[in-house]
# Entry
Amino acid sequence: MKIKRRAVSLLLATCGGLGVGACRASPGADEVVPGWRWSWEEVERTVNRVRAGRTLQPAAWPNGARVAVLLSFDVDNETVSLRFGEPTVGALSQGQYGARVGLGRVVRLIDRYGIPASFFIPAVSLRLDPRMADVIKQAGHHEFAVHGWIHEMNSSLGAVEERELLVRAIDYLEEVVGERPVGYRAPSWNFSPNTLAILRELGFLYDTSLMADERPYEILADGEATGMVELPVEWILDDAVYFDPLGNRYSNPREVLQVYKDEFDVAYDEGTMFILTMHPHYIGHRSRIVILEALIDYMRAKGDVWFATHRQVAEYVRAQAGLTP
Ligand SMILES: [Zn+2]
# Structure
């Protein structure tokens, strides 16, 4: 197809730790056909490749809850440094903090409240410190889910390599955890042209990497319903954009807490979902874990909150929507 002539070269150096806002495709100028020269058919075909379909927002949450709260932890640790092949000792040590200190602090906090959470773990993180699995398993209700093999930039991989890494990640998680994961969060929250097909082929129940809504929805592939649940994320509700050490200054955690509270309040009023993405090597620091505790206290005080794993929510909304397994 004409518009696929583009040879996308990612400006890796500007991608930041997790490749957030700064991580944009930077195509060679002579190879890109700009959108204003596309036919309408090309525009439609491009946006329809992976698009939000019908809402899966249920009429009610379990037990009369007003809002579903999904806490997730992306256990990236050293992998974000390793993936580009040029790790520095300093950056690796900042990542290792996640396994040595951050994760334990996070799990102790949520376990004290009995709140289940989902842990999206690059397999290499777990292999570097498999004791993390025991820490997470202790409560017996947390979810282990897939976050790539080594936090690879799946969006820039070919189909064969992307699939091979994903299979390796699933197998390793299954081996260590004792259960096959059903949830996927793309490293750096992007899809390649092949990601959705690979996820479907491998039998994933849900994805949580896309951003077309605040409510759960079904993903369409080329306009066709897939049955794949999307539990959408947003950088607003990610600790990395506020606490990424590649930034020239950290955000004040107390100000970040206010953002999270405001997001939660509207989710509560609208009866939708509040999905928060955190990283043990960011949120696990002393001056930051206090805002997670404050946020949990704030949400609990409001009442009528369903704290659930991503898997629980995906299964619930599927059942409510009449999607068969
Ligand atoms: Zn990540």
Remarks:
- Residues 18, 74, 76, 147, 151, 187 surround zinc ion (CB under 6 Å).
- The chain has twelve helices and ten strands.
- The radius of gyration is 19 Å.
- The mean pLDDT is 91.
